[in-house]
Design goal:
single chain, alpha/beta, Arc Repressor Mutant, subunit A, seven-stranded mixed sheet, two-stranded antiparallel sheet, 15 helices, globular, protein dimerization activity, COMT_dimerisation, Dimerisation domain-containing protein, WH_DNA-bd_sf, COMT-like
């Protein structure tokens, strides 16, 4: 006799969530959301796309059932979030980014890897560029960063940096360089550097040029673990890179400390991995495919914090940034005075 609390429903729910994800991906690939800014019938959408009207109707009905579309009198329209992020006509369209993330973190080979182990070449080199397409990720991430990450970062920076004074910023492993671009746009006396791997550096070159900031933002291509990253920065932005420093975390923390001016700031975004490597599940599951292939990646947040404190950093008092810390993806540290 099973107790009421013991039920297989949790597994059925996983199947449902998987099927709903499949519907989302299919909807993006079929680009149906770009035809549903206003209420439209399946026949009208079929006329524009050439899709089979009967099956399109069934598909749209399923999208409505999971909350992506609204349906009235047999006509369908995007719900607000779908229109904002899944409609290709939107300035904040994320469809291609979502599909890329699904491919990048897919687990279709998990059974093979568990049975047979990692790829020997990947395990030996421990080079993420051999597993992940960071160039395409950087290109597609640029638009995603404007869905809250940039805005909250700029609000917090206003509490720390004086717009009337010169500011020198380093966007380390900055992908498209959006953080540095938007900060420098908002600070008349600011200049900076986006430091990226040679295989990715072309992306920030393009975004900086598009922003008309070539004279104020330089692009440096290299390996931040081994190469010089420059000196005398007022602010260093390090988004999702220290998690991969592994045995170099202490030397990397020291390098960041020495690259800052006295009382300079480090803005750190990490994956916040717990010491038992069980949370957050988004990081544990999201990086599993690469780890199964043989990559030795991810550091727990405690190890990162310990290295930063040992280098001389101090976690910034949240009161100094007027409560904006709660809206940030990362957190700020300030350079202490003890290790110079």
């Amino acid at each position: 006799m099973h107790t009421v609390e013991l039920s297989p429903k949790v597994f059925y729910q996983r199947i449902q969530e998987y099927q709903e994800a499949q519907l989302l991906f299919a909807g993006i690939r079929l680009d149906v959301f770009s035809h549903l800014q206003d209420y439209s019938s399946p026949g009208e959408v079929a006329a524009h796309t050439g899709y089979h009207e009967r099956n399109l109707r069934l598909f749209l009905n399923s999208l409505a059932s999971i909350g992506l579309l609204d349906m009235q009198n047999g006509r369908y329209k995007n719900k607000p979030a779908a229109d904002e992020y899944l409609n290709r006509n939107s300035d904040t369209y994320l469809g291609d980014y979502i599909l890329f993330r699904e491919r990048m973190t897919g687990l279709e080979h998990v059974e093979e890897r568990v049975r047979n182990g990692p790829v020997a070449e990947v395990e030996q080199s421990n080079d993420g560029l051999g597993v992940y397409d960071f160039y395409t990720l950087a290109k597609l991430t640029a638009r995603e960063m404007y869905t809250g990450r940039v805005q909250s970062f700029l609000k917090a920076a206003e509490c720390l940096l004086n717009k009337n004074e010169p500011v020198k910023v380093l966007d380390l492993g900055g992908g498209p360089g959006v953080m540095a671009i938007e900060l420098i746009k908002n600070y008349p006396g600011a200049e900076g550097v986006v430091f990226e791997h040679p295989e990715v550096a072309r992306v920030p070159e393009e975004t900086v040029k598009a922003a008309g900031l070539e004279g104020r933002i330089g692009i440096v291509a290299g390996d931040f673990l081994s190469d010089d990253i420059g000196k005398h920065y007022d602010l260093i932005i390090a988004s999702g890179i220290l998690d991969f420093a592994k045995e170099n975390i202490n030397s990397m923390a020291d390098k960041l400390y020495r690259a800052l001016k006295p009382s300079g700031y480090l803005y750190l975004v990490s994956h916040d991995v717990s010491e038992d490597f069980l949370s957050p599940k988004e990081s544990i599951v999201g990086w599993l495919s690469g780890q199964l292939d043989g990559l030795n990646v991810l550091l727990c947040k405690t190890s990162i914090d310990s290295a930063l404190m040992a280098a001389g950093f101090e976690s910034l008092n949240k009161d100094r940034i007027a409560g904006m810390m709660n809206n940030l993806q990362g957190e700020f540290y300030v350079k202490g005075q003890g290790n110079e």
